[in-house]
Amino acid sequence: MPLQEKAQIMDAEGIRRALTRISHEILEKNKGTQDLVLIGIRRRGVPLAQRIAAKIKEIEGTAVPLGMLDITLYRDDLSKLGYHPVLRKTEVPFSITDKKVVLVDDVLYTGRTVRAALDALMDLGRPQLIQLAVLVDRGHRELPIRADFVGKNVPTSRREIISVYLQEVDRIDKVVIDEPIV
User: Fold this and answer.
1) d(CA 156, CA 137)
2) How far apart are CA 124 and CA 128, in angstroms?
3) Edge-to-edge order in the sheet of strand 161-165
4) Rounded to the nearest 5 degrees, what angle is found at the Cα of 30, between the Cα atoms of 63 and 36?
5) What is the reported pTM?
């Protein structure tokens, strides 16, 4: 489905500011870095988690453990993805049991990706608590899930698509609203 860019809602500086604010909010809500871990949801949640971890280290002088979560096999629409879904590696080289886990993703929409991530996390251990950080919350929830830390709330129609582009994946930092071309 071809897309047409309707509006740019964040540029590189906007993304940087949002992640700086989210990093401060995470530290404030968790009273520092004690027992704190970050886990990015593969694909674009990972570089966002890496940036937040770097900002937290800059602020606190402490490195926070960082993991990467592949939720492909936990999705409730796996049968719609085709017979050969692309699996990426889950890399969480530390125990999450009794930790304060901050799950990081790029866009919060229906809540189904987060639900799959929660299922995947529970297979890894029993965290003290799980919080959610997202760059963009676009609404239209289908499950009772909300983000604890949000870079930007963007009201959208269901027809619109939020596209996040990150330097690490796409060689540019920006967030846009796209529309299908009909």
Assistant:
1) 10
2) 13
3) 3-10, 174-180, 161-165
4) 35
5) 0.93
Residue-wise DSSP of 55-76: HHHHHHS-PPPEEEE--GGG-T
Are 108 and 164 spatial neighbours (Cβ–Cβ below 8 Å)? no
Indicate the burial class of 45 (C-beta count within 10 angstroms; 0-12, 13-18, 19 or more): buried
Domains contained in the chain, CATH given = 10-159 (3.40.50.2020)
User: Structure tokens of 47?
Assistant: 């570089």
Written as one letter, the residue type at 112 is R
Give the CA distances from residue 93 to residues 25, 49, 66, in Å, rounded to whole numbers and listed in that order. 25, 15, 8
Using a 10 angstrom Cβ sphere, with 0-12 exposed, 13-18 middle and 19 or more buried, the burial of residue 112 is middle
Q: What is the pLDDT of residues 28-64, one digit of tens each?
A: 999 999 999 999 999 999 999 999 999 999 999 999 9
Terminal alpha carbon distance of the chain: 9
Task: For strands 3-10 and 174-180, give the pairing.
Answer: antiparallel
